[in-house]
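[agent] plan:
  1. take the single chain provided in the ticket
  2. run structure prediction with default settings
  3. attach structure tokens to the ticket
  4. add a short note for the reviewer (M.T.)
[agent] executing step 1
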Amino acid sequence: MTVARAFGKWCGVGLALLVLVPVAVAPAYAENLPDLSPKSYPAAKVYRGKVKLPDFNGRDKDFRLFRTTITKEMLEGVNFAGEYRVNQVGCGAQCTFVFVSSNRTGEVFDFPLGGDDNLLMKLEFGLDSRLMTAQWASYEPDRCVLEYLVFDAGRWKELYSRQVGTFEACHDPIDENAAQSDPERRAP
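[agent] step 2 finished; step 3 output follows
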């Protein structure tokens, strides 16, 4: 399901119900942790060419409803993984969803988190890395989760996920929760 289609469901417009699926939380054994440093997931290069906008009547039609915000953000320039623009959009109280668009090809990609399942979502990412850190909360179960994902060839791969506290912990910055849960694993 694309973000655009799910948006209506998250905001109560659609007819389908979302099923909450718990996220697997990796064990806290230091020897099992992947390298979570942004430098370990470098972007190939930084795209500095002309912005190619999405094909909202073709390949990217599922995102047509959001063409104004996607286009506006893309024109601001790349901010993630060398060629992409990350655009986090609100969908209600404590609710957001994310578009990731290639300024080089114009393609828009889904982000695997967002909506009512991932409240208070905060993202940390950089221009020269494919690593994204997401922090999000849920009421049922009552938790705050830190998730590390890498974006490769248009696909998201979860590297590591860890509960860092209850819902309230997600009011704290990502860096604070990361330092408290995995002090040696957090890049300076």
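[agent] step 4 note for reviewer: The beta strands are 84-92, 95-102, 108-110, 119-125, 131-138, 143-152, 155-165.
[agent] ticket updated
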